[in-house]
Amino acid sequence: MISLKDFFSFKNNRAFWLNLIAMPIVVIAVIFGVLHWLDVYTHHGESIIVPNVNGLPLKQAENELSKKNLKVVVVDSNYVKGMPAGSILEQKPTGGSKVKIGRSIYLTINTGEVPKVAIPDIIDNSSFRQAEARLRALGFKLTEPEYIEGEKDWIYGVKYNGKELLSGEKVPREAVLTLCVGDDELETDSLKTDSLFLNTGKDGKPIVDESWF
Question: Is the pLDDT of residue 65 over 70?
Fold first, then answer.
Protein backbone atom coordinates (compact mmCIF):
# COMPACT_ATOMS: atom_id res chain seq x y z
CA MET A 1 0.00 0.00 0.00
CA ILE A 2 1.34 3.45 -1.03
CA SER A 3 1.65 5.92 1.77
CA LEU A 4 0.49 9.54 1.39
CA LYS A 5 4.11 10.62 1.52
CA ASP A 6 5.08 8.29 -1.31
CA PHE A 7 2.06 9.46 -3.38
CA PHE A 8 3.12 13.11 -3.24
CA SER A 9 6.78 12.25 -3.77
CA PHE A 10 7.89 13.72 -7.12
CA LYS A 11 10.78 11.28 -7.25
CA ASN A 12 8.55 8.23 -6.93
CA ASN A 13 5.71 9.56 -9.21
CA ARG A 14 7.61 11.69 -11.71
CA ALA A 15 5.50 10.67 -14.76
CA PHE A 16 2.25 11.42 -12.98
CA TRP A 17 3.33 14.86 -11.82
CA LEU A 18 4.80 15.74 -15.20
CA ASN A 19 1.51 14.86 -16.89
CA LEU A 20 -0.44 16.78 -14.26
CA ILE A 21 1.68 19.90 -14.80
CA ALA A 22 1.60 19.54 -18.58
CA MET A 23 -2.19 19.37 -18.81
CA PRO A 24 -2.98 23.01 -17.89
CA ILE A 25 -0.06 24.18 -20.02
CA VAL A 26 -1.47 22.33 -23.02
CA VAL A 27 -4.97 23.68 -22.34
CA ILE A 28 -3.69 27.27 -22.11
CA ALA A 29 -1.65 26.82 -25.29
CA VAL A 30 -4.69 25.49 -27.15
CA ILE A 31 -6.83 28.42 -25.99
CA PHE A 32 -4.26 30.98 -27.10
CA GLY A 33 -3.84 29.14 -30.41
CA VAL A 34 -7.58 29.21 -31.12
CA LEU A 35 -7.83 32.90 -30.24
CA HIS A 36 -4.91 33.71 -32.50
CA TRP A 37 -6.47 31.74 -35.35
CA LEU A 38 -9.77 33.58 -34.92
CA ASP A 39 -7.96 36.93 -35.00
CA VAL A 40 -6.25 35.99 -38.24
CA TYR A 41 -9.37 34.47 -39.79
CA THR A 42 -11.61 37.45 -39.01
CA HIS A 43 -8.88 40.06 -39.60
CA HIS A 44 -9.42 41.27 -36.07
CA GLY A 45 -8.56 44.95 -35.72
CA GLU A 46 -8.12 45.38 -39.49
CA SER A 47 -10.56 47.67 -41.34
CA ILE A 48 -10.56 49.66 -44.56
CA ILE A 49 -12.56 52.61 -45.81
CA VAL A 50 -15.03 51.78 -48.58
CA PRO A 51 -14.47 53.88 -51.73
CA ASN A 52 -17.39 55.95 -52.99
CA VAL A 53 -18.31 54.48 -56.39
CA ASN A 54 -21.69 56.15 -56.91
CA GLY A 55 -22.01 57.45 -60.46
CA LEU A 56 -19.09 55.38 -61.78
CA PRO A 57 -19.48 52.81 -64.58
CA LEU A 58 -19.81 49.28 -63.23
CA LYS A 59 -16.42 48.14 -64.58
CA GLN A 60 -14.60 51.07 -62.96
CA ALA A 61 -16.48 50.54 -59.69
CA GLU A 62 -15.44 46.87 -59.66
CA ASN A 63 -11.80 47.87 -60.18
CA GLU A 64 -11.88 50.45 -57.37
CA LEU A 65 -13.43 48.01 -54.91
CA SER A 66 -11.20 45.08 -55.85
CA LYS A 67 -8.13 47.24 -55.13
CA LYS A 68 -9.35 47.32 -51.54
CA ASN A 69 -9.93 43.54 -51.50
CA LEU A 70 -13.68 44.03 -51.43
CA LYS A 71 -16.20 41.86 -53.24
CA VAL A 72 -18.80 43.28 -55.65
CA VAL A 73 -22.39 42.03 -55.76
CA VAL A 74 -24.96 43.64 -58.10
CA VAL A 75 -28.29 43.19 -56.33
CA ASP A 76 -30.69 45.50 -58.16
CA SER A 77 -31.24 47.79 -61.13
CA ASN A 78 -33.32 50.90 -61.63
CA TYR A 79 -33.85 53.65 -64.18
CA VAL A 80 -32.84 57.25 -63.59
CA LYS A 81 -33.23 59.62 -66.52
CA GLY A 82 -30.00 61.34 -67.52
CA MET A 83 -27.71 58.77 -65.88
CA PRO A 84 -25.54 56.58 -68.17
CA ALA A 85 -26.54 52.96 -68.55
CA GLY A 86 -24.58 50.70 -66.19
CA SER A 87 -23.60 53.48 -63.79
CA ILE A 88 -23.85 52.97 -60.03
CA LEU A 89 -26.97 54.43 -58.42
CA GLU A 90 -26.46 53.14 -54.87
CA GLN A 91 -23.96 51.17 -52.82
CA LYS A 92 -24.21 49.44 -49.45
CA PRO A 93 -22.22 49.95 -47.27
CA THR A 94 -21.89 53.55 -48.40
CA GLY A 95 -18.64 55.24 -49.35
CA GLY A 96 -16.57 56.21 -46.33
CA SER A 97 -17.79 53.31 -44.19
CA LYS A 98 -15.24 51.14 -42.37
CA VAL A 99 -15.45 47.44 -43.12
CA LYS A 100 -13.27 44.35 -42.91
CA ILE A 101 -11.23 43.07 -45.82
CA GLY A 102 -13.22 40.74 -48.06
CA ARG A 103 -16.57 42.36 -47.25
CA SER A 104 -19.21 42.31 -50.00
CA ILE A 105 -20.35 45.67 -51.37
CA TYR A 106 -23.89 45.57 -52.78
CA LEU A 107 -24.56 47.76 -55.82
CA THR A 108 -27.64 49.06 -57.64
CA ILE A 109 -27.03 50.01 -61.28
CA ASN A 110 -28.87 52.13 -63.83
CA THR A 111 -30.52 50.05 -66.56
CA GLY A 112 -30.55 52.82 -69.18
CA GLU A 113 -33.83 51.37 -70.47
CA VAL A 114 -37.04 53.24 -69.74
CA PRO A 115 -39.36 50.89 -67.82
CA LYS A 116 -42.79 50.18 -69.29
CA VAL A 117 -46.01 50.95 -67.47
CA ALA A 118 -49.45 49.47 -68.11
CA ILE A 119 -52.26 51.75 -69.27
CA PRO A 120 -54.84 51.88 -66.46
CA ASP A 121 -58.48 50.94 -66.99
CA ILE A 122 -59.67 54.38 -68.09
CA ILE A 123 -61.03 53.68 -71.59
CA ASP A 124 -64.83 54.02 -71.55
CA ASN A 125 -64.55 53.98 -67.77
CA SER A 126 -63.39 57.43 -66.72
CA SER A 127 -63.87 61.15 -67.13
CA PHE A 128 -61.21 63.32 -68.72
CA ARG A 129 -60.16 64.83 -65.39
CA GLN A 130 -59.85 61.44 -63.68
CA ALA A 131 -57.91 59.90 -66.59
CA GLU A 132 -55.55 62.85 -66.81
CA ALA A 133 -54.74 62.68 -63.09
CA ARG A 134 -54.12 58.91 -63.17
CA LEU A 135 -51.89 59.02 -66.24
CA ARG A 136 -49.78 61.93 -64.98
CA ALA A 137 -49.36 60.17 -61.62
CA LEU A 138 -47.87 57.20 -63.51
CA GLY A 139 -45.34 59.46 -65.23
CA PHE A 140 -47.01 59.83 -68.63
CA LYS A 141 -47.16 63.10 -70.55
CA LEU A 142 -50.27 64.24 -72.41
CA THR A 143 -50.87 66.17 -75.62
CA GLU A 144 -53.94 68.26 -76.31
CA PRO A 145 -56.92 65.87 -76.25
CA GLU A 146 -58.52 64.64 -79.44
CA TYR A 147 -62.24 65.43 -79.33
CA ILE A 148 -64.71 63.02 -80.90
CA GLU A 149 -68.47 62.63 -80.92
CA GLY A 150 -69.74 61.25 -77.66
CA GLU A 151 -70.62 62.02 -74.07
CA LYS A 152 -68.94 65.20 -72.94
CA ASP A 153 -65.52 64.72 -71.23
CA TRP A 154 -65.80 60.91 -71.38
CA ILE A 155 -62.70 58.89 -72.35
CA TYR A 156 -63.20 56.76 -75.48
CA GLY A 157 -59.59 55.89 -76.24
CA VAL A 158 -55.87 56.45 -75.65
CA LYS A 159 -53.30 56.85 -78.43
CA TYR A 160 -49.52 56.53 -78.47
CA ASN A 161 -47.66 57.54 -81.62
CA GLY A 162 -50.98 57.43 -83.45
CA LYS A 163 -51.77 53.87 -82.33
CA GLU A 164 -54.89 53.04 -80.33
CA LEU A 165 -53.97 51.42 -77.01
CA LEU A 166 -55.87 48.91 -74.90
CA SER A 167 -56.21 48.95 -71.12
CA GLY A 168 -53.32 46.99 -69.60
CA GLU A 169 -51.08 47.49 -72.64
CA LYS A 170 -47.57 48.58 -71.63
CA VAL A 171 -45.75 51.61 -73.03
CA PRO A 172 -42.56 53.40 -71.86
CA ARG A 173 -42.92 55.57 -68.80
CA GLU A 174 -42.98 59.28 -69.72
CA ALA A 175 -44.52 58.37 -73.10
CA VAL A 176 -46.57 61.16 -74.70
CA LEU A 177 -50.20 60.03 -74.90
CA THR A 178 -53.28 61.48 -76.54
CA LEU A 179 -56.68 61.06 -74.95
CA CYS A 180 -59.74 60.64 -77.15
CA VAL A 181 -62.39 62.68 -75.34
CA GLY A 182 -66.10 62.87 -76.06
CA ASP A 183 -67.76 66.16 -77.04
CA ASP A 184 -71.55 66.21 -77.37
CA GLU A 185 -71.43 69.52 -79.25
CA LEU A 186 -69.70 67.79 -82.15
CA GLU A 187 -72.67 65.43 -82.43
CA THR A 188 -75.10 68.37 -82.41
CA ASP A 189 -73.12 70.19 -85.11
CA SER A 190 -73.12 67.01 -87.19
CA LEU A 191 -76.88 66.71 -86.93
CA LYS A 192 -77.29 70.35 -87.96
CA THR A 193 -75.08 69.83 -90.99
CA ASP A 194 -77.02 66.73 -92.03
CA SER A 195 -80.30 68.60 -91.76
CA LEU A 196 -79.11 71.12 -94.36
CA PHE A 197 -79.24 68.43 -97.02
CA LEU A 198 -82.48 66.63 -96.18
CA ASN A 199 -84.15 67.71 -99.44
CA THR A 200 -82.91 67.07 -102.97
CA GLY A 201 -83.92 68.58 -106.32
CA LYS A 202 -85.13 66.80 -109.43
CA ASP A 203 -81.52 66.38 -110.52
CA GLY A 204 -80.74 64.52 -107.30
CA LYS A 205 -78.58 67.33 -105.94
CA PRO A 206 -79.20 68.40 -102.31
CA ILE A 207 -81.18 71.56 -101.68
CA VAL A 208 -79.48 73.70 -99.09
CA ASP A 209 -81.71 75.33 -96.51
CA GLU A 210 -80.29 78.86 -96.52
CA SER A 211 -82.23 79.73 -93.34
CA TRP A 212 -79.33 78.31 -91.35
CA PHE A 213 -76.98 81.03 -92.71
Answer: yes
CATH fold match for the domains 48-110 and 116-190: yes
C-alpha 39/C-alpha 65 separation (Å) is 23
* Residue 81 to residues 15, 85, 113, 169, 191, Cα–Cα distance (Å): 81, 10, 9, 22, 49
| CATH level 2 (architecture), domain 48-110 | 2-Layer Sandwich (3.30)
Q: pTM for the full model?
A: 0.51
pLDDT at 174: 87
Residues 129-158: tens digit of each pLDDT: 999 999 999 999 999 999 999 999 999 999
For residue 207, is pLDDT > 90?
Answer: no
Which CATH topology does 116-190 take?
Trypsin Inhibitor V; Chain A (3.30.10)
3-state secondary structure the chain: CCCHHHHCCCCCCHHHHHHHHHHHHHHHHHHHHHHHHHHHHCCCCCCEECCCCCCCEHHHHHHHHHHCCCEEEEEEEECCCCCCCCEEEEEECCCCCEECCCCEEEEEEECCCCCEEECCCCCCCCEHHHHHHHHHHCCCEECCCEEEECCCCEEEEEEECCEECCCCCEEECCCEEEEEEEEHHHHHHHHHHHHCCCEECCCCCEECCHHHC
